[in-house]
Amino acid sequence: MTQHAQAFDQWIRTDFKAINTELEQLYFQQQDKANVEGVGDDLKARMESGGRGFIEKLLAEGNTDEGFDSNFDLLGNVGMYMAACRRHDLTEPSRERKSPLKAASALALHIGASLGVTPRFATSHLTTHCLAKAGVPKRFTSLDDEALFIDYNTLAVLAYKRAADALVRILPMGISHPVAIHLLEDARQALVDVAKWNQVLFDKLDSERFFNSVRPYYKPFRVGQHEYRGANAGDFAGINEIDMLLGLCQANNPFYSQLLVDKFLYMMPEDQRRLRDVMRRRSFLDDLLSAAKTDADSDWFQRVLPAFLAVQQAHGHTAIQHHDQLVSRFIAKPSTEMAAQHLKQVTASGPPLEVLMRSLQGLRDLRAAAPRDDIPSRYRDINALSALVKGQRHD
Ligand code: HEM
Q1: What is the pLDDT of residues 36-82, one digit of tens each?
Q2: Would the CB of 198 count as within 6 Å of ligand 1?
Q3: Is there a smaller number of Cβ atoms within 10 Å at the N or the C end of the chain?
Q4: Is the alpha carbon torsion for 143, 148, 153, 159 positive or negative?
Q5: What is the CATH number of the domain that holds 33?
């Protein structure tokens, strides 16, 4: 890391965080907690000019080749600064044609393009790739609810990644291999952990604090000319690897492939590679449906089938939790209580809330193999396989 990059990092970890925290306390005291207009203007100006000072020096220095990790980290810092300017309404994509943060945009575009990632902070900057110093990771604020939200998101992301790793390892040996059943069990246990962390978020996160003081840092903003959607916990490959290897979502379904295409640059390059690889594989569900024609009564099939179905159920359960608990309590409900003038700012990805909710419901139902015929749910295939588990056969 260059000296300028280090100084900027230190500022992000100290003054930047203190100013954001102070502003959040001022907003939160108001009757209309979503209002930021005319509140703490001196603090906002200090934040904007403080960050600009570091960024102008970094821009003049050029994208010196300090290796992927340093450059990615710097991109995270520039992105956090731009996201905070957006949160405090110093920038607002719908009233601009290009970002007024010229130096920050130039630096972010330069680094993002050279690394092959989106030119803004991504979820991995705050979760799996966020370096802690003396026990404290980088955060926007020192609010307890931000720490809780990010720490449990990180744990859930890591658990999904563990499940995906186990499933990917089955590919070269095939689903009928005697070891596959153990890998399926590893995947199931990892998904049970995802459910555990989701439950902690549901039980412990304060919805008013999250909605008003944490979530606003994840809004879309412009970098240069273009607007980039907000970061969300889903920007890693593991969950989609699980979707596709289990056969619940398919890369040739335009709804799903659009989602994948849109998220590629929000992921680390290593995740991009993994996802590309899995997109061209055949699913275990399809393998099992083919094998059922000849091997339904064989020992291997009768051992693997319940293990596979248990993984599918565990995955479906985490998706149902995400939608029916987390999105419902922390996004949908507070949105209905929010003053109408702020509503269009609610989602991180930008589309109106009802459009976003429909799309998330679709994902939930695909993962849960729910009985729906308007989307390519595999519920008939899952039911057909379930009926083949010995002891449950009706033929
Ligand atoms: C996407 C809400 C926690 C995984 C989303 C979206 C929302 C949301 C609203 C849609 C994108 C957007 O914001 O525009 C929440 C809330 C959470 C939470 C309120 C907790 C308070 C988590 C956790 C995970 C997760 C712990 C696990 C890693 C995902 C995934 C997506 C997503 C994978 C992308 C869409 C998909 O593939 O389902 N989330 N989320 N979320 N979230 Fe969460």
Answers
A1: 999 999 999 999 999 999 999 999 987 667 778 899 999 999 999 99
A2: yes
A3: C
A4: positive
A5: 1.20.58.600
Checking if the pLDDT of 303 tops 90, the result is: yes
Has residue 52 been placed in a domain? yes
Pick from 126, 327, 344, 356 the residue to mutate for probing ligand 1's pocket: most ligand atoms within 8 Å of its CB. 327
Kindly report the backbone phi and psi dihedral angles of residue 173, in degrees, each rounded to the nearest multiple of 5, phi listed first: -100, -20
ipTM reported for the complex, 2 dp: 0.97
- At 349, the pLDDT band (50, 70, 90 cuts) reads low
d(CA 137, CA 117): 22
* 133 within some domain: no
- pLDDT tens per residue across span 352-367: 889 999 999 999 999 9
How many CB atoms within 10 Å of residue 348? Answer: 18
Number of domains in the chain: 2
By the 8 A CB rule, do 233 and 153 touch? Answer: yes
- Residue 26 forms part of a structural domain: yes
Residue 136 DSSP one-character state: B
- Which residue among 151, 232, 317 has the greatest number of ligand 1 atoms within 8 angstroms of its CB, and so is best to mutate? 232
Q: Is 232 in the pocket of ligand 1 (CB under 6 A)?
A: yes
Query: How many Å apart are CA 104 and CA 113, to the nearest integer?
Result: 14
How many angstroms is it from 393 CA to the middle of ligand 1? 38
Is residue 388 within 8 Å of 296, Cβ to Cβ?
Answer: yes
Residue 362: CATH number of its domain: 1.20.58.480
* Predicted TM-score (pTM) of this structure: 0.95
